[in-house]
């Protein structure tokens, strides 16, 4: 039925009254026609024996028919013209169960496919300069992993390949989202991981420059496919042995990348690409072992486990017909593991970009996280959900003041906050302020996240251990103690302040952040200042709860 134009409302009262008898008849016919249509639909479904016509659907149709009959009996000839209610049919949808897998890749099922496969990609972040790879991020359709040489591969269609060849004839700096031709490269390279400013020189950074290998056409020799909701993400860990770097230079950029391309609902398959750079997991065996332990503990925050995570050189690929007792293992039908979706390019998505974290005075000249508070809070909620924890603080009760004891092992920042903790317990009754202290390194990730997610005021020193503050709830207070004379430049002390990670924490819009010098933390004046700061924050919390 056509929608009635609003101009009909301007009809005079007499005209509307003259139309009412016709309107009543029209409504009777309308309802009758709807009822007949539903009845015919029901008969057709039954005659066709459509599997979705379950008893529940039949009952639903009966209710529609009964409602239509009642409506027909109650129609009055004086009823004004109204829009007929929209009749919608619920479509019964169900995911087709996947067949038994042909094998497993890092404990994730894979299914052999023989039909041809072709890939495509799209990139963002172009700046038309030689360093564009630092700023680009790309999303892929059908990103594959070659298990024989540990590389990632794309299989462009013949049409895409022809277009790419054509693009090489274009002038320098011509750009589309899929094809970029610059004087230095014919592929839209990206950075596998975040950039450490201490990697002096463009050539050292360039070790992270990366793009999948482009084959000359579609793959027509078969492949093993990961589940339909998979997204394969190659990356390089910035310095994953440090929890702070892991959370804010690896995991947070990965979350941003998934958010940018609307891939958060996909099942993440993370693979570390080893690159030997100073300060990274791959720099020496000691760092490698430390990284293994850190990743093992914190991967669940990203919805991953140690079984589903690997580096490109130690992946696990097993076929179902093979077992430990198989004398002659069956060889794979293909060397390729392909994911329906893929993404890469973490370069400028870290919390600091091309700057240091707050060691050098130059770090404060620009900000990198402006406007990113909502993204940071979403990241916090994403991890809590992966850990099976609530995202909201429990309502009511006393305020929770939490001290993070000895969260740093760096000389000058080794603080247990014993005096502060005892003082606050003496000043406040537990029904007003519940004061607790924890050595977070002794707790599981889930325990740390739960403690922080229920804190109203959280006290810690700066550094990697401060990453637990990522889980603080909206409206809470973060008090950070930093070295007022701990600044460094090119590994030399400057005697300047070093409020580490100031850029990301000062843009966390769901928190109120305060910075205090750590050097005189136990002096009477500083203890008094701390007490008054806590009282001030409690008054604000009371207002928020009102």
Residue windows where pLDDT falls under 50 for at least 5 positions: 1-94, 180-185
Q: Assign a percent range to the helix content.
A: 25-40%
Count of helical stretches? 11
Structural class: alpha/beta
Largest sheet: 12 strands, mixed
Radius of gyration: 31 Å
Q: Kindly, what is the distance between the CA atoms of the first and last residues, rounded to a whole number of angstroms?
A: 51 Å
Average predicted local confidence, pLDDT: 82
Strand content: 15-25%
**Shape estimate:** globular
Quantity of strands, as a count: 21
Please describe what this structure looks like.
- The chain is α/β, with parallel strands linked by helices.
- 29% of the residues lie in helices and 18% in strands.
- It has helices at residues 13-48, 55-74, 158-167, 202-205, 243-260, 285-298, 373-386, 418-427, 445-453, 502-505, 524-545; strands at 103-105, 108-113, 120-124, 137-146, 151-154, 190-191, 209-210, 213-214, 223-225, 230-235, 267-272, 310-311, 317-319, 336-344, 399-404, 433-438, 457-461, 476-482, 488-489, 492-493, 511-517.
- Strands 1, 2, 3, 4, 5, 8, 9, 10, 11, 12, 13 and 14 form a 12-stranded mixed beta sheet that branches. The chain has a 5-stranded parallel beta sheet with strand order 16-15-17-18-21.
- Helix 8 links the parallel strand 15 (399-404) and strand 16.
- Helix 1 (13-48) runs antiparallel to helix 2.
- The chain is globular, with a radius of gyration of 31 Å.
């Amino acid at each position: 039925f056509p929608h009635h134009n609003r101009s009909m409302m301007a009809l005079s009262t007499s005209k509307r009254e003259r139309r009412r008898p016709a309107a009543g008849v029209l409504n009777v016919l309308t309802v009758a026609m709807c009822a007949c249509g539903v009845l015919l639909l029901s008969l057709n479904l039954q005659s066709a024996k459509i599997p979705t016509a379950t008893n529940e659907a039949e009952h639903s149709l009966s209710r529609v028919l009964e409602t239509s009959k009642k409506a027909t009996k109650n129609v009055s000839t004086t009823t004004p013209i109204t829009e007929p209610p929209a009749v919608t049919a619920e479509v019964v949808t169900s995911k087709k169960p996947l067949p038994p897998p042909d094998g497993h890749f890092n404990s994730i099922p894979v299914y052999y496919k023989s039909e041809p496969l072709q890939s495509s990609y799209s990139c963002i972040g172009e700046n038309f300069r030689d360093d564009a790879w630092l700023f680009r991020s790309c999303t892929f359709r059908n990103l594959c992993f070659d298990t024989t040489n540990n590389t990632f591969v794309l299989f462009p269609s013949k049409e895409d390949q022809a277009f790419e060849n054509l693009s090489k004839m274009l002038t320098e700096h011509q750009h589309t989202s899929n094809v970029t031709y610059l004087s230095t490269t014919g592929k839209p390279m990206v950075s596998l991981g975040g950039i450490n400013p201490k990697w002096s020189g463009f050539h050292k950074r360039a070790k992270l420059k990366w793009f999948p290998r482009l084959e000359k056409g579609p793959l027509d020799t078969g492949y093993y496919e990961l589940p339909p909701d998979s997204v394969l993400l190659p990356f390089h860990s910035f310095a994953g042995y440090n929890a702070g770097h892991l959370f804010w230079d690896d995991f947070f950029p990965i979350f941003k990348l998934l958010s940018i391309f609307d891939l958060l609902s996909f099942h993440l398959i993370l693979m570390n690409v080893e690159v030997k750079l100073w300060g990274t997991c791959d720099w020496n065996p000691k760092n490698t072992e430390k990284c293994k332990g850190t990743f093992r503990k914190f991967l669940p925050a990203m919805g991953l486990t140690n079984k589903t995570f690997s580096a490109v050189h130690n992946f696990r690929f097993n076929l179902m017909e093979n077992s430990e007792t198989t004398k002659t293992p069956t060889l794979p039908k293909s060397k390729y593991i392909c994911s329906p979706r893929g993404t890469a390019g973490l370069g400028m998505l870290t919390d600091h970009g091309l700057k240091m974290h707050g060691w050098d005075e130059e770090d404060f000249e620009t900000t990198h996280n402006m406007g990113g508070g909502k993204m940071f809070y979403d990241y916090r909620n994403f991890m809590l959900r992966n850990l099976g924890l609530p995202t909201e603080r429990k309502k009511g009760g006393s305020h929770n003041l939490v001290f993070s004891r000895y969260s740093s092992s760096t000389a000058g920042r080794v603080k247990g906050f014993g005096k502060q903790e005892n003082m606050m317990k003496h000043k406040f009754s537990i029904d007003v302020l519940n004061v607790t202290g924890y050595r977070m390194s002794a707790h599981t990730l889930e325990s740390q996240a739960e403690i922080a997610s229920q804190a109203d005021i959280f006290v810690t020193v700066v550094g990697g251990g401060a990453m637990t503050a990522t889980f603080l709830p909206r409206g809470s207070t973060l008090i950070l103690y930093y070295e007022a004379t701990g600044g460094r430049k090119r590994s030399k002390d400057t005697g300047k302040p070093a409020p580490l990670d100031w850029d990301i924490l000062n843009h966390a819009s769901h928190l109120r952040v305060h910075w205090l010098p750590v050097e005189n933390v136990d002096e009477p004046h500083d203890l008094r200042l701390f007490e008054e700061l806590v009282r001030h924050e409690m008054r604000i919390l009371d207002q928020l709860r009102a």
